Batch of 2 targets.
Target 1
Amino acid sequence: MGFWKRLFFGDHTKLEDRQPNDTKKEPKQPSSAKLSANIDYLMNEFNRTSDLKIRILKKGNAALLYFESLVDQEKVQEAIFKPIELGDVEDISNLPHSKETLNLEEAITTLLRGHAIYMEDGSRKISQFKVTSSFNRSPEEPANEKVVRGSHDGFVENMMININLIRKRIENRDLNVKYFKLGKKTNTNVAVIYLDGVADPEIVQQIETRMKDISADMIHSPGYVEEFIEDQTFSPFPQMLNTERPDRAVANLMEGRVAILTEGSPTTLIAPSTFFMFYQASDDYNMRWYTGTFVRLIRLASFIIAIGLPAFYIAVVGFHFEVIPDDLVIPVKSSINEIAYPPIMEAFVMVVIIELIREAGIRLPQPIGQTIGIVGGLVIGDAVVRAGLVSNLMVIVVALTAIASFVVPSNELSTTLRLLTFPLIILAGTLGFVGIVFGFLFILIHLSRLESFGVPYFSPVSPLRIKDLKDTFIRVPLYKMNERPKDSHAIQTEAVGPSREWKKREKTGKPQTIESGTNQTTGGDQSVSSDSSSE
């Protein structure tokens, strides 16, 4: 019973009951004045791995250690090896990117990050140099989040580049970045980004607490982090928004949400998230507001079509034939009479075939994948109809269902919609329209009770907040969105101030005034100081 309670009513464990484990301090191993002792310790700690290189310098009185698989060999040669061997520097600490330590454990950590360390016989000092190699692809537009208008760059696998893309769009001192190390064996870098003074400190603290509680050997992608910190892992609905677009991440940061970046992955997690956020796309805000509203309504209608159309067809042909118009009764009847098994089996066969074609198209190289899609959609579809295995109407229904599921801007929610098709097909095949009603009722209850970091998942519909409906089913003009959405729990609620005062001045016939010293007229030397009280 506890499983079903968590599934449909969420996990309401209080934040104070989720305290992080005691953080372990980095162990200390003091370095020795004997060079050979330090080298032996490091070699034993790394199990004498072959890619740890040791270069002996100064006739055996010094050594340079680094992982050849992590460093840039040219940087090591030009920035460290040549200056030391040629005697260009008297003090090694004067070299660029130099940092000193007396702890061998800290030296191990820096070696694993792609740094080089320099040690001398008779000295306990260990000099560290940042010579990490980088293999980065260009920040091109994500293949699964393309837009017609707007930015065409995207996140990459380098976390520093991703933070750079965010900071270029938010030139504000309040943008805060906090780093974490997750994974006992992998030590993956994770960054939590939020706008201080806008984001709710309780939500930020809650995210940090849950991340500190993660105890796993391997964390190497946002999917791992998501499953460890989301509220309800047994829910089919994603509770954190996944995006590879910097502009989409920045827009959510400005609303008071939190972004989580992981080294080695271009995917960014946005929390807290709501159901309607998954139907918002960057294109909505780069086109006319009524066009954006029309497109968004089509996306929301696709939710009903994607999960309910096959179930509706099965219920009609199996239980409620009377709802079909008289002119269509004979064509529909003749189409399904030749099929040897019931419509529910017919639907299952077609949905599984569509999923097989989709997976094959994704896994194969792009030219072959497109060919498989054409062959599967045309040749196999026509063949199964001619063989009498599937009716013409079922092919149309399943094709429309697949198209509707691909309309969703989020791949995570698109997968959820295809998954929910199967239980609704079973309910429709056993109980007809009553089963469909029960299925949608279960989904609605689950959405209403689900939470994302304490925020209602179905907000602003449940609980109802009229002001926040400006950017859910419709998209009003941007200057009308003067408040941040309530579901983001932003501290600073005002987002847009008076921005169309010029319209009021045009109506009243008052001339537009220009502030002295800030804006200059191009046609003359005179400038008029503005009086805010006159407006």
Note: The chain is about 40% helix and 10% strand.
Target 2
Amino acid sequence: MSPTHGASRPSVAWREPGARRLLGALLLLVVLGLAVRESGADFGRLLDARGLDGARDLLAALLHPDLSPATLALVAGLAGESLLIGLLGTALACLMGGALAVVAARMPRLVDGPREARAPRLLAESLRLCARFVLAIFRAVPELVWAFLFVRIIGLGPGAAVLALGVGYAGAIGKVFAEQCEAADPGPARQLRAAGAGRTAVFLHAVAPQVARPCLAYALFRLECAIRSASILGVVGAGGLGAELELSIRYFQLERLATLLLAIILLVTALEVVSAVLRRARPGLAVALVAGGALVAVLRLPIAWSDLVAPAAVTQARAFAASLFNPALDTAFLLGALDLARVTVAMALAGTLLAALPALLVAPLAARTALGHLADPPRGRHAGRLATVAVLAVARALLQVSRAVPDLVFALLFVLCVGPGPLAGVLAIAVHTFGVLGRLYGDALDDADPRAARALETAGSGRLARLLHAVLPQVAPRLLAFTLYRFEVNVRVAAMVGFVGAGGLGDAIHTAVSLFHLPELAALLLVLLAVVVVIDAVGDALRARAQAAAWG
């Protein structure tokens, strides 16, 4: 027997928790530095004379919005139009995404039921793969690109925005709905299948009842996103607040711009409150309200639905569809597209990492339960309670404003301050993502088990020690998952902000769409699709590994 058999193995310094956290922080700093370098963002421009003067003028104007009756009436009408566009676009996305999800999902009964004949089984699998491919295309192309294409096909107006949201959001909704169907309990489906029920009956009575509530919650979340997006699609002529935003920035009408931004913040905040109430209400009420709003939108929005089948629109649509199967395959062009894709991914990564650290610092201050667990007992001191409430309110307001203003609007503002280029795109992604991650991190902290923090508090530990050693270790996998999810989303965002001069692949897509060079556009979109698929796969693998490590 070896003399060392049974003896405790010496600990390795880098495996200690503190050392691993330090190594992880250093690795993130290195990755951030590489991402900033590859994106081409020059942060020195923030401190030059143009950047400082532009930021000062912009801030001064934003603090003095135009509140004249004429401007308020105009903004109120455009906000109402954006709301109706979001409602109708979400309803259309739910119909399209739900139908594709039923085909795309490998539901439990198809796996565990009686073996079908070869031909029907091959047909079902082929349809499933086709549906997943269509959802991937819908999801990969940013809604602003869809809006630009539909403007070219059917003309200016809210109709292009509705179709862009319907197609773009159908990809995300269909993917989530399909995943929910595949994760459903197979027991009820097996029982109905054994009783001789058909595919439709099994789905309606065994699968749909299980996934209805989570799918409805996600649809309400996408409704919030759709109304936020509807407020910016007008920058390409698709109606709503976006057209007035673009004009205000182009003609330097900053007081009117401040009014428009305030309207967007109020609209998105009010919608979040209503959405939270609807999530707790009966599902039928939420469906009825959204359906009623979509019906009002059909009646009120000036959309000529007959234009969809007009000869000119059909010709344009056929040309675009044909171009997807005949992209530009010139070697030099593809190499250039891949280089722009590299810049786009670097912009998304830099913006995400720049947002994650401040979001992690602010999230404990914005999480009601976590703040209560980390705060020392007030012991009757009213000043302590008031300070806690004040910190909570300020942190939540900061995150709300950052989250409510769309990333494309931030891109427009930063282009105004620091000029066009990747720096504006990175800053826009970082500021908006700060609000999103801060909210998600706060929700995760609120869900943490408070007993570990209370035990450390009893032992005399301070707030920071309780946060680092009792709360964060519980929620670290969720924080990582949220960050990876947001990075995947930001890759699409980085492609979208290029439409307003913020660099990356979006700038080339904008040029191709504007000139209607369809083969080049198809090649660029296919490159974007490949990048999105690869990053989604890497993100899924990292999330699975983090979850496995968390469970030991």
Note: The radius of gyration is 25 Å.
